[in-house]
Specification:
194 residues; alpha/beta; six-stranded mixed beta sheet; two-stranded antiparallel sheet; 4 helices; 28% helix; disordered N terminus
Length: 194
Amino acid sequence: MKPSATLLVALGLSLTGCFTAYEAQIESDYSYKADFRHYRTFSFVSGDGLAADTSKLGQILRDAIRTRLRQQGYQQAERRPDLLVNFNVYEGDLRFRGFAQPTLTSWISWGQVETENTPFSQREAYQPLRLMLREGTLLITLIDNRTNRAIWNGYASGVTVPAGTQGVTVLRRSVRSIFDEYRVFTKGYINHEK
């Protein structure tokens, strides 16, 4: 018996629904004091924990982050980088404080950067959000190396990483989805300026 086209379309739609039901929750927040247009180089935080992890998981995450930042025009620099990249994977549920903000792209297009001299009446108010992130959260933080302040957090909640090559794909997609929230290209990159 040959399956009908309608049956195949219905099966495809039901499978698509199953896959989207398990997608990770992607969020991000940022600092109003960061001048995102001036960052050009990055390096990874070194030290204990996953950042120092040489396991396959740590390498996959570093490679995926490195690839995405390079696609946006950033260069890796071990000496005095503009940005330090830190990442963490949380296995259990996680209570997290985020912020309700305009999109980062909108904020940058408005050309505003808060400084210590910005009058309080003109500063943006952070509107905290209490989030319950589901088991399997990947958190990526960008830190301004000069001020030592976190300027951007991107996170994927509910990431289930299966064993094998499918797990590598899930991790890479998670990093890509997180950085879709950070659509910041280095100055002149799109116009091929150096």
